[in-house]
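sry for the spam today, last one i promise. struct tokens for design, 184 residues
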């Protein structure tokens, strides 16, 4: 019917979006945990950027081991809820157990930014609601996406980072500490 009306019929083509994720680990082989999670994320899109690894002082619940953190950019065709489900499945398959809020974990993956979208639903808020207050997130994210814009605050990641007060220690590790992985 559409063709007879002079309209061209095209197949639906999914649109890829750039998503920024934060990854952290403070249990077991932290670097191996991050590398395994990054590899698994590649099943849901294409990892197009990966920050250095950063050793970070725990915040909120400080009586635990230091974290290893990084940020990753993922090109994906998934929608926000689909990506959240996929990320939670990666955590589950890697043995993540949510036993204590802000407590030790072998892997933690947070969706920071999803293109320029603002999502506020039960169980999912994008941009991540604490993104602008966390040095351990902004430091690696500023390395790979300094000009990405926070869609609520209308500031770049670099501007958010530079506005942080002094806080918990965030140490960039030498590139070799990242080890082998998808972008090496």
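last one done:
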């Amino acid at each position: 019917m559409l063709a007879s009306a002079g309209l061209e019929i095209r197949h639906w083509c999914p649109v890829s979006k750039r998503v920024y994720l934060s990854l952290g680990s403070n249990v077991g082989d932290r670097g191996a945990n991050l590398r395994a999670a990054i590899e698994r994320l590649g099943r849901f899109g294409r990892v197009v950027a990966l920050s250095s690894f950063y050793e970070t002082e725990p915040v909120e619940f400080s009586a635990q081991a230091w974290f290893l953190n990084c940020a990753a950019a993922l090109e994906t065709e998934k929608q926000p809820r689909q990506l959240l489900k996929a990320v939670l499945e990666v955590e589950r398959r890697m043995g993540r157990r949510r036993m204590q809020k802000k407590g030790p974990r072998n892997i933690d993956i947070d969706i920071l930014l999803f293109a320029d979208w603002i999502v506020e639903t039960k169980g999912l808020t994008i941009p991540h609601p604490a993104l602008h207050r966390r040095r351990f997130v902004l430091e690696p994210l500023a390395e790979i996406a300094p000009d990405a814009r926070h869609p609520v605050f209308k500031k770049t990641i670099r501007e958010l980072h530079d506005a942080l007060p002094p806080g918990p220690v965030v140490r960039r590790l030498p590139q070799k500490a990242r080890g082998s992985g998808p972008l090496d």
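The chain has one domain: 14-178. ok im logging off now
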